[in-house]
Input
Amino acid sequence: MQLSRERMLQAYRQMKVIREFEERLHAEIQTGEIAGFTHLYSGQEAVAVGVCEHLTDDDYIISTHRGHGHCIAKGCDVKGMMQEIYGRAGGLCKGKGGSMHIADVEKGMLGANGIVGAGAPIAVGAGISAKLDGKGGVSIAFSGDGACNQGTTFEAMNMAVVLKLPVIFLFENNHYSEHTGVDYAVGTAGDIASRAEAFGMKAWRGNGCDFFDTFDVMRDVIDHCRAGNGPAAVELDTERFFGHFEGDPQRYRGPGELDRLRAERDCLTSFRTKVTEAKLLDPADLDALDSDVLALIDAAVAEARAAPRPAPEDVLTDVYVNY
Amino acid sequence: MAMMQLREAINLTLHQEMERDPNVICLGEDLVGGMGTAGGPEAIGGIWKTTAGLYAKFGADRVIDTPISESAIIGAAAGAALAGKRPVAELMFADFIGVCLDQIWNQMAKFRYMFGGKTTCPAVIRVAYGAGRNAGPQHSQAAYAMMTAIPGLKVVIPSTPAEAKGLLASAIRDDDPVLFFEPKALYATKGEVPEEEYLIPFGHARSVREGEHATIVTCGQLVGTAEKAADALAKEGIGCDVLDLRTTSPLDEEAILDSVELTGRLIVVDENPPRCGLAADIAGLVSSKAFAALRAPIQMVTPPHTPVPFAPELEQAYLPSVARIDAAVRAALSYR
Ligand SMILES: Cc1ncc(C[n+]2csc(CCOP(=O)(O)OP(=O)(O)O)c2C)c(N)n1
Ligand SMILES: [Mg+2]
Output
């Protein structure tokens, strides 16, 4: 971990923004003010940030239904995201997409996605574009352990190998797809990286609950792809701290499971412990960031709640023709 | 008779049909729920709770919880049907038809014809469809019009718990592939349902309201919307003949044409976008077969030609409403 002080503070801040964004949404959803299905990313912050801290706007990512963390880490405007989730006209997608479809193409964020497994082929296309542009850009498909079972993922992996594209298949193994355990659904005894290897690409594994581990692994992976070696895969072991969607009774969890995960696998706690014990950062620096972030989230929620709703006639905009 | 939710009526039918015929099998994602977890099987019983209890009763061989692999699920249903079983496959959302369209369109729909009538393909695909739950552009589509356009498929859209039960039983016993569209906004609505087995035949529309001034043809969750519009108009002495199609393929042409012969005015209310949708299809039918009976232009009440938006205000503007049906009836009546 030879990270500068600034970069460490930046990484912590990003993880904290994601965490507080999600924890706050969890609370706000109980009020009934937020419509639709929301899938929270709490617990997996080290993945999004450990990946995106290596990227620039010339790199692409494509996300999943659990996309808030990826969006924030890739630089989407937090207030615009909050408005989108509240279905407001000023949201990043004008309230037309909602939580599952936040996108900011200029930032290289090609969208959260409601179709499990849709992302990997789209990442292949962005990889073709990045290769043609010749600026060393990479394209990353975030997928869950459930999405790795879609044929689309397999087709995309093979195509990326055949075409030698700078595409990274990034699997966030949080051990569940909805209410199903990974060992049941992934036939290789829950091992996803070895599947990617079988397609003929190099695969890495890492601890997705530890920022430094993820960050270090991703440096190697991204260097490999930027150097023109074709695609790569990464499987990061991580945890989700909430239900599959907000309202999930989570009867598939064991007794005390969530408390244990929060106690033992919290990436924010482990980050703080590591950097303060090694005297790399002062606890006061982190505390200051914590309060900044809380203020940002407070403001984002207050602004979203007060923001104007779309007008009914807006249903007819953003199409090339309407009937 | 018992009061039950639409989801409970579906659940009861699945239990009864699996009990009756050992060839009936169910497959889909999280159908059992909790597989490979500490909570164990049946921790959820299907995300819509339509398959609860099946696993405990019929076991893992007949109640198959699958990985997230829609092409393989629907292809497996096609293959099992060819090989003598009666699979009931579930897609959590109708939108996921997009993931496995080949298996529906090029495979199961065509086997019977393409193999010269030597086989049938008795598979059922249950899907949750429709807008109204703010689920956004990829989890809210109606999609039954697209499926209706495919030769070889039967397409069923129940509108109440009792309808769901009789139609699902018919679907499972039918020898052709059936797309069964469950209106997800109505899963929790209750109605009287006969607990014993009964079948509702395909191709016979249900008369929901009788009236002589205008015909309203619709199906699925919009039947309730049309009923409300008709009841309000009835108070003003405007009588609407409301037909619930039940199945869009086969289509009960006779019921539609008979009603238009009586009323001379047709309003089609459909949840699909307007181009090449059900409304346009029925308008085409009536203008070619009952042109002389028409006293007013046919009114099509559909969403606009856009995806389904997320924000509640936009989604409300998208869906056909009581007000739009009311306006369409009045527009038709303004012609003498
Ligand atoms: C094609 C498709 N099938 C099913 C679903 C329903 N669904 C949404 S998320 C999900 C589980 C995804 O699991 P995983 O890939 O592990 O991601 P996680 O939720 O754990 O982040 C399922 C089955 C969907 N949205 N799209
Ligand atoms: Mg998962």
